[in-house]
C-alpha cells in the first residue's frame, strides 16, 4: 500500500469542565472535506502517553461522517445501558456495551470519556476498503471493527 501524505484536519482538545466538553476545530474543514470521499483515522492520547490509533473508517463524505462523530463526542452522554459488548476486529473487549443500531452513539462518548486529546487525519483520497483494513491492522486501531460487529459480541449467547 502506498500511503498518502497524512494531513491533520481536525484537532480536538477535550476538557471536562462543569460536565461540558470544549472542542477546538482547526483548518478550513468545511471547504476541504465536505463531499470528499476517502479514508480517515482517529487518534487519541490518554494520560499523557503517545498517540494511539483508535479507529479507521472509509466513506463517500469524510466531512459529513466526521461532523457526525464530533456531534457524538460533544453532545452524546456516556451511557451504561448497552446490551452488547463492543468487541474490536482484533477480538478485544473495548470496555463498554452498546445497543443495536447505536454504535457511534456509544463508542464516541466512551472515547471522549477515556481520552484527553483526539485528532482525525485524512489518509487516502478514495473510499477504499483495502486501504482502511491495511491501515487499521498496521496501526492496531483499538476500536476498529471493519464496519460490523464480531459474531461473538453478544452477551446472552
* Average pLDDT level: 81
Q: What's the helix count?
A: 4
Query: Whole-number radius of gyration?
Result: 15 Å
Q: Could you give the count of β-strands?
A: 8
Residue runs with pLDDT of under 50 for 5 or more positions:
1-9, 16-21, 153-157
Oligomer: single chain
Helical amount among residues, as a percent range?
25-40%
Find the structural class using helix and strand composition: alpha+beta
Task: Give the H and E element order.
Answer: EEEHEEHEEHEH
Q: Main sheet, how many strands, which sense, barrel?
A: 4 strands, antiparallel
Order of strands across the main sheet: 1-8-4-5
Beta-strand content: 25-35%
Tag the structure with descriptive keywords:
four-stranded antiparallel beta sheet, disordered C terminus, globular, alpha+beta, 8 strands, disordered N terminus
In short:
The chain is an alpha+beta fold and 157 residues long. The chain is 27% helix and 29% strand.
Word description of this protein:
It is a single chain. This protein has helices at residues 29-33, 62-75, 103-114, 129-139, and strands at residues 7-13, 16-17, 20-21, 38-45, 52-59, 84-87, 93-98, 117-124. The protein is α+β, with helices and mostly antiparallel strands and 157 residues long. The strands form 3 sheets. It has a 4-stranded antiparallel sheet with strand order 1-8-4-5. Strands 2-3 form a two-stranded antiparallel sheet. The chain has a two-stranded antiparallel sheet with strand order 6-7. α2 (62-75) packs across α3. The protein is globular and about 35 Å long. Residues 1-9, 16-21 and 153-157 have low confidence and may be disordered.
Amino acid at each position: 500500500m502506498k500511503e498518502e501524505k497524512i494531513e491533520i484536519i481536525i484537532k480536538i482538545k477535550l476538557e471536562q469542565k462543569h460536565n461540558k466538553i470544549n472542542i477546538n476545530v482547526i483548518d478550513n474543514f468545511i471547504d476541504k472535506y465536505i463531499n470528499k470521499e476517502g479514508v480517515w483515522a482517529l487518534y487519541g492520547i490518554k494520560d499523557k502517553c503517545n498517540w494511539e490509533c483508535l479507529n479507521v473508517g472509509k466513506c463517500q463524505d469524510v466531512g459529513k461522517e466526521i461532523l457526525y462523530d464530533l456531534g457524538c463526542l460533544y453532545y452524546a452522554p456516556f451511557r451504561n445501558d448497552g446490551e452488547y459488548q463492543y468487541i474490536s476486529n482484533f477480538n478485544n473487549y473495548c470496555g463498554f456495551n452498546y445497543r443495536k443500531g447505536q454504535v457511534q452513539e456509544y463508542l464516541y462518548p466512551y472515547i471522549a470519556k477515556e481520552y484527553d486529546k483526539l485528532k482525525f487525519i485524512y489518509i487516502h483520497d478514495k473510499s477504499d476498503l483495502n486501504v482502511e483494513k491495511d491501515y487499521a491492522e498496521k496501526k492496531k486501531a483499538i476500536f476498529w471493527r471493519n464496519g460490523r460487529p464480531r459474531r461473538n459480541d453478544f452477551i446472552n449467547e
